[in-house]
Amino acid sequence: MVAITEFQKIGVGLTGFGMFFLLFGVLLYFDSILLAFGNILFLTGLAFIIGLRRTAQFFFQRQKLRGSTFFLGGVALVLLRWPVIGMAVESYGFVVLFKSFFPVVFGFLGSFVNIPFLKTLFNSLSGSSSSMV
Length: 133
Hints:
Blueprint: H1 6-27, H2 32-50, H3 52-59, H4 65-79, H5 83-97, H6 102-112, H7 116-126
Helix pairs in contact: 1-2, 2-3, 4-5, 6-7
């Protein structure tokens, strides 16, 4: 059993609220205040969960520098009240940052869900060569 510190519990809450505000900001026609608040809460929660040093190391790795630039540039654009362009840039940066993690997620979802059509879809997205259902 992994022990979770109080800072990590606070970080999970901050990240959850950040995702809620981001979703709510998009649903309310890209409200810049809600999106900015969601971005700040999400990044703060991430720093609380994995630590400030590891967060900086994650964003400023040499191979992830382009994704980090787009992601943090999108956050800056949202904070400067250009929400639609900022969220588009931020979304591209998010995809570039986590593109190596997506096959793992799709593979997990494919093994987690026992619905035949979805399992086949997730297996094809994860790059798995076995098509057995």
